[in-house]
Amino acid sequence: MANPITIRIDGKAMLVNAGTSAAAAILNSGVSGVRRSVSGEPRGPVCGMGVCYECRATIDGVLHQRSCMVTCTDGMEISTDD
Amino acid sequence: MGAGNCDYDAIVVGGGIVGCACAYYLSHSFKRVLVVEPGPVGGGSTAAGMGHIVVMDDSPAQFALTHMSQQLWSGLFPQMSPGCEVRPTGTVWVASDAEEFSHVEDKQRFYAEHGVEAEVLDAKSLHQAEPNLHASMVGGLRVPGDSVIYPMTAAGWLLDEAKKNGAELRQGKCVARLDGRSVELGDGTVLEADFVVNAAGGHAPELTPGLPIEPRKGHLVITDRYPGFVHHQLIELGYLKSAHEMSHESVAFNAQPRATGQVLLGSSRQFVGWDSKIDRRLVSKMIDRAALYIPAIRDLHCIRIWIGFRATTPDSLPLIGAMPEDPTLLIAAGHEGLGISTSLATGRLIADIATGAQSSIDPTPYAPVRKAHG
Fold this sequence. Notes:
The complex is a heterodimer of chains A (82) and B (374). Chain A has one helix at residues 22-29; strands at residues 4-9, 12-17, 35-36, 42-43, 56-59, 62-66, 77-79. Chain A is mainly beta and 82 residues long. Chain A has one domain: Beta-grasp domain (Ubiquitin-like (UB roll), Roll), CATH 3.10.20. Chain A has a 5-stranded mixed sheet with strand order 2-1-7-5-6, with helices on one face. A two-stranded antiparallel sheet of chain A has the order 3-4. The termini of chain A are far apart. Chain B has 374 residues and is an alpha/beta fold. The longest helix of chain B is centred in the N-terminal third of the chain and has 17 residues, at 60-76. The interface between A and B is small, with 5 and 5 residues.
């Protein structure tokens, strides 16, 4: 892996390539969705280009970040429970 | 009751929350109640109400109506469907300076003397209760008995309960004409009734000419879900100034936690007829106002903005009661920004008139043709 960095998804450490989007990292981690709908169902990215807002996740404590538009940085904390 | 030779005992024109509340209470005494609504039930001004069930102290008549309504709502809450999203958030009236805070104790005393629990918050307890408020806010008044509901669902629930007592709904039907004995639908059908209730909100004067009601436009902004961002229904203490000034336009800070974790933000007031376009300049003013109270509001994502029209009367009191020249024509309209709260007392008063019962509050201040102050 070229330039691996460490992020945490729902508290679990994971190595990703520098330049990976947060959405891709979440999908590769095997968790069932980037966030929960209002009724608790898992949700995932649709457009992958920042338009649909389906890929929102909590990143470094900030709610509703479009994970497809955020590039992973070393030590980033992502939560998919909100 | 009823003479029995009419089509209905009572016809309620308008399926907003006020019309639904009238049908609800009428259906307890009358078997044949009809609601006529051209659009979705609760789809007019009701859908643009915040659903804040609040006791107001700005005039004795407003207090009597809102207090009676709050007690009626409290009695219904345990039965209401989960979709009505009943939440006992309480209200916090926020004082932004010492001058506003100086009125808080008077307000607390008024509530206490009238049996309404209210607690003065100093700056420290205010910020403990609502950490996102700006540090400069000097205090407030917490009224724990106030609540938040989801207005459209609540209107539908009231109508469903009325239907269990035999009430009917004719949906998608416009009303062309009405008087105290009959309602003519847009397709020419004439329905007769012992009583007719004009609960058409801002459209009431189109059916009963001369009613002093004007549409007053408001905007609402709702955010994405941020659970715990605010805990109470928050209103600036200067709110009444904004609500009562009959100026061309005004904004006031008003923020509410929804059951979903979303923040619902008001409020604006404008006399622009029935112009339903979103006025982005005024929405910006509204958000600027909110940010004075809660700076972090600017970090939240707004997902939807919509508008509605309050049915406004010159003295800010609704029109509830019989028309003097046509006493079986009952008016239940003109609730300005308090229609969700005061719908229940309105329905109760209307049903009292129809049954000849004594009302628990003096209905005189709400008479559709106001008597001169004596």
